[in-house]
Amino acid sequence: MRYGVVADIHGNLPAFEAVIDAMPAVDRWLCAGDVVGYNPWPAECVDRVRELDAATVMGNHDRAVASDTGFRFNSMAAAGVTYARDALDEDALAWLDRLPDRRTVADGEILIVHGHPENPDRYTYPDEFEPGMLEDNARVTITGHTHVQGVREFDEGVVMNPGSVGQPRDGDPEAAFAVLDIDEGDDGGGTAAIDVETHRVAYDIDRVVDAVEEAGLPEKIGTRLRSGR
């Protein structure tokens, strides 16, 4: 099975559309949370994730928007939550509210969380990935939250972050995503082979900068995208 993996879309429709166009043929989409927040297309991004039928978990911005609460938010993040809360209809808000903190797919082979299996709000950077994150007999754990793309392989399996679609923070302004391939056969050791490809794709950042200004959101939400910070 081949999976398209995304995280931290954050209401950035131009970036998400670029990722959708660049994604090779996959059997299923997986999303490690934060569909909304920051950027001015929360409704459109929720619609696209739902159209893709992506297996999705709740990010901290998703939770804040659905429950009308904050999460140690700075002014930019708080503004994005308020904007999304006003922009989404009741159906979209209910969909966000129903998202789980964690979910498994592929008969438990893949665990999806937003931050860390023990705490959905814990920032876990790639250099902190460790085998203990492969809980519930999962052979792949997918995380997001840090907006930093990375993959680490262990004897027990793979821990990965596809990077952020809509707000990269690893110094690369291009939208990030990954392709996860779990072979239905095995690798000779009695377990399915796992392959992860990380990708980046350019998109029209100026369109986002202009839309952020038109929406009355903090200017830096858009301009920071140019540096991937």
From TrEMBL:
The organism's place on the tree of life at top rank: Archaea
GO annotations of cellular component type: cytoplasm
GO molecular function: phosphatase activity
Calcineurin-like phosphoesterase domain mapped to chain residues: 1-184
InterPro entries: Ap4A_hydrolase, Calcineurin-like_PHP_lpxH, Metallo-depent_PP-like, Pesterase_MJ0912
Protein name: Metallophosphoesterase
